[in-house]
Amino acid sequence: MAGSYALDLLRFFMTLKLEKYNLSGKKALITGAAGLLGMQHAIALIEAGAKVIITDVNQSALVKSKELLVGHCFDEFQVEIIPLDVTNQGSVQSVARQILNSGERLDILINNAAIDPKVKNADGLSEASRLEHFSLEQWNQEIAVGLTGALLCSQIFGAAMANDGKGGVILNIASDLSVLSPDQRLYRKDGFPDDLQPVKPVTYSVIKAGLIGLTRYLATYWADRSVRCNALSPGGVFNGQSSEFVDRLTGLIPMGRMANQDEYKSAIQFLCSDASAYMNGQNIVMDGGRSVW
Known about the structure:
This protein is an alpha/beta fold. Helix content is 41%, strand content 13%. It is built from eight helices and seven strands, in the order H-E-H-E-H-E-H-E-H-E-H-E-H-H-E. The protein has helices at 2-19, 36-47, 59-71, 89-101, 136-163, 202-221, 243-250, 265-272, and strands at 27-30, 51-56, 79-83, 108-111, 168-173, 227-234, 283-286. Helix 2 (36-47) packs across helix 8. 34% of the residues are buried.
């Protein structure tokens, strides 16, 4: 009898602890949600009880994403799709008004939108990624999505969180390359001279490092109004990359493998919930140990 009581008591306290992860009654917005990790972020928040607005500039991809989420056994009312161009201030303001006019508020913002720059351009030219040949047009486009977009969304949605007195959470999705320089040896191709070797473009590192600076700025800006901001920096995620690339990268990771797509979900739930209520301004690096080796 005493053993049964102790077990019930343990379950009760475990339930109380897990309650801090409960996002029921919360509404979240994810930018760039039709991408690889954006969908996983949405699944994580819905599993914790939140209603999620998935946004992306690609409307057809959004529709498909919602179908996949509903097919994942989630209720349709938990997922809303809204097309959003994060580089356009008017587009962000329009979505903010849409949320306000619905009688609801936004509790969580995940700045996830980004362009993953390729080591080759559309013509298959690897030298286009090199700093000496990197175009100003590509620089401006990628900065606009990955960094300016995060600023605009934080500025508009974050202000709404602060101004209604209820606070909220902003989470910036950065990268292990926010704290590491890219190892260009990962991208080398046999038979190419050094000045034509593909490289990870400069924009990726600049954007992800910039997001950490934005995170720290926002963390102190609205802290007195209960808006906190953190960053999550994922390591490399396996998505069908060549075996040559995977072998090279995993050799740099103490755990000896790349991340699976769903391995960041628990971190998303933690950082967006009251389980991390006293965490503010931090960059959580989840890279299998790569950055400490």
